[in-house]
Write a structure and sequence with these properties.
Strand content: 15-25%
Helix content: 55-70%
Shape: elongated
Order of helices and strands: HHEEEHEEHEHEHEEEHEHEHHHHH
Strand order of the largest sheet: 4-5-10-7-9-8
Number of strands: 12
Amino acid sequence: MNYWNLFYIALRAILSNKMRTFLTMLGMIIGVSSVITMLAIGQGSKRSIREQISEMGSNMVMIYPNRGMMGGVRMSGADMQVLKIKDLEDLQNECPHISAITPQVNSSGQLINGTKNAPSTVYGVNEDYLTIRQYKVDKGSFFSNEHVKTYAKVAVIGTTVANNLFAEGEDPIGKVIRFNKIPITIVGVLASKGSNSMGQDQDDIVLMPYTTVQKRILAQTHFQSIVASATSEDETELAVEEISTVLRRNHQISAYQEDDFDIRSQEELVSTLSSTTDMMTVLLACIAGISLLVGGIGIMNIMFVSVTERTKEIGLRMSIGAKERHIMLQFLIEAVMISISGGIIGVLFGLLASYLVSFLAGWPVYVQAWSVALSFAVCTTAGIFFGWYPARKAARLDPIEAIRYE
């Protein structure tokens, strides 16, 4: 038998019941469009998180004191005074996979300029901080190494701080503000970076030489943390190993002792957040995929109805020579055509829905080719799977009984 004829018969059967066919395809349309949209939202969120973390410095490595014993008392990491100037110098000299490194000490308090004041945090760092955190100076300049050596009371502020303390259009460069009771001269203003992925305002920041913060504000010699930048994102793990080796030696930690420091990298944060968004994406896709299952069951149901309605036709065709495989192919082609048509329309609706979500809700959306291909493949497979049993039933009808069917 001519297979094009089978295709024509299936197409004629579909067109003869347009409304029923459309309602059957509706499950597939909703399922495919839902899967594409949910995957697009999940992938968009994942890319957005990675981009925002990359802006913070994707190859950044952070070193913090770990909890430990001091004077017989178990202390929290914040109370441990284990990161010293020698650690900083040795890390600078002995770690080839570190491109930039800065100590960090900070203190929260009130910034005051005349009658204006605002709460903020002062961070004591060195010149490498700009490179590590990918900040840029918009006005003025960053403080120099000479400022660090002389404990200079100078600062570079973020745009949020500038807006809080100065009138619109007023130039902060050279102005003196106070942090609690300490006068500070502003030498630069950072370019705006906005909020990070955690919702933290990256422009609400005051940077000062770390020696100034240590001596004039905190009166301490240890660092609260050390922040470094690996030479590349791929070499972050090597940088972490080098840092660990140097610090364990400096702190005289034996092979059986717990580290008194904690090393964290942005790679770990990216991995954690990515696994979370991946899990949520899979969950959303599975929920949306239920529509595909329902659509497939709908196809099976309609094909059973079609077989019942056309029992006499099946009997006549078999009586004039049609074989079982021809009857089976006729109904299987019909089921696949319904599922493929629904899949194509579903893909178009999915792309449209993704665009509308991005345009109207402002959510990050990213449609990947594999998600479209996967949805379409599942849709087609569902059509074959759920259409096979009704087609098989039609092919096994007894021709004489089928002709007599009322």
